[in-house]
Amino acid sequence: MSSNLRIRRVCHHCGKEFEARTLQTRYCSHDCNRKHYKLVKREEKLKKFLSGTVAGHVPLEDTNKSKPDLEKFEEIQKRDYLSIAESAIYLGVSKRTIERSIASGNLKVVRLGHRVIVPRESINKMLGL
Length: 129
Ligand SMILES: [Zn+2]
Fold this sequence. Notes:
This protein is an alpha+beta fold. It folds into two domains: 65 residues, no CATH class; 51 residues, Arc Repressor Mutant, subunit A, CATH 1.10.10. 55% of the residues lie in helices and 14% in strands. A three-stranded antiparallel β-sheet has the order 3-5-4. The longest helix is centred in the middle third of the chain and has 47 residues. Zinc ion binds next to loops.
């Protein structure tokens, strides 16, 4: 009795009406079944990829923030003449602080045109080293 069961169903993939032999059948053909399965898998992969990049993007940006300064600091330590920006990184203060020290005469600098060169010796003297 039940083996002769015929159910009219609509294919999950192509939308075509077909006669299903079991209630579980969702596709008109094996081809539609395979194609739809691939589509679902592709969507899952895409979703995973998108959520992965979004989630992984934030901490990546955070760790990169302090890195350039640290690399610069190591480079600065090897040099005898610094710019105002480099002096600020070296001392861990703002550029404004360096500029104020220059203006008040605490930090002796060399002016080359519009450029200001800060000898490391001047920084050491200012610090009393
Ligand atoms: Zn189909």
